[in-house]
Design brief:
Keywords: Membrane, Signal, Transmembrane, Transmembrane helix. It comes from Felis catus (Cat). InterPro entries: 4_helix_cytokine-like_core (IPR009079), Flt3_lig (IPR004213). This is Fms related receptor tyrosine kinase 3 ligand. The N terminus and C terminus are likely disordered. The relative contact order is 0.13. The chain starts with 9 loop residues before the first helix and ends with a helix. It contains eight helices and two strands. It is mainly alpha-helical. 53% of the residues lie in helices and 4% in strands. It has a two-stranded antiparallel ribbon.
Amino acid sequence: MIVLAPAWSPTTSLLLLLLLSPGLRGSPDCSFSHSPISSTFKVTIRKLSDYLLQDYPVTVASNLQDDELCGPFWHLVLAQRWMGRLKAVAGSQMQSLLEAVNTEIHFVTLCAFQPLPSCLRFVQTNISHLLQDTSEQLAALKPWITRRNFSGCLELQCQPDSSTPLPPRSPRALEATALPAPQAPLLLLLLLLPVALLLMSAAWCLHWRRRRWRTPYPREQAYASRFRDVLPLWLVEH
């Protein structure tokens, strides 16, 4: 009896090697001793991009937290989910291209990621944008994949919502936003203004009193005139 051996494609063999090789498997704390990212991932993604309709609709997360270490990993997690969905509805030739791309990013499934958070918001875009972003994230992650531990990236984070109340401000922040103190010349002017007004009032009162003392009343003026008229006669008689 002749037993036909299954035909193993190069992509299937690479995926099997990725799953079975201890050096390529992610450790429980999500770190890699050998790089699971191939040197030809750009060519693999370009082949799929050239074959697909450029305007095929997919969705991407619009509010993933910007994180230098975890950000590329999170984007690849979401891209790998889309590769699985597309494989389920694609034809045979398309499936081989999708499988090749999926093999490039399958390593993200080797870490125990938490379920997607409910705060994630998705927007529709074209498959070409998703593939371009996948290539860029692999390029950003490749130099660090064996140097960093990704155990702190196992839960996708959302950007803070604008409606979320801000945390209480520290006393130092409150001091920094307090109104500036009045400048010294302005403060001195405000202090001297009442004194100046008081001195001006006192000077005006003194001037008015002196003028009153120097200006006699009409009756006093009549007596003084009569006195001047009588005074020469009195002097003549004596």
